[in-house]
Request: fold
Amino acid sequence: MHLQHNSITVISLRSALDSSREELRRLREIVGDFRGENYVEAVERLSLENHVLRRRILAGVNNKIAKDASVDNEKTAIEPVCQSPQSNILIKKE
Reply:
């Protein structure tokens, strides 16, 4: 089973690589000849966008973690109660 999973992974990776090569070939045909300066500017802009998006994602994850922790704290902050052994009356612990 493990060997079969590895072969599927290799096939998937090869397929993704072939798709990427084909996409790159098509983009080269569309763009044609370009100046190196435009390429550098595009890479810098995309790098900056990637950085901003990564920070937003991490901030969202951190906010979700903080929100989940807050909900957990609210659940545990409920005052403990116990049931009296002699009756069905709940007694609040002080």
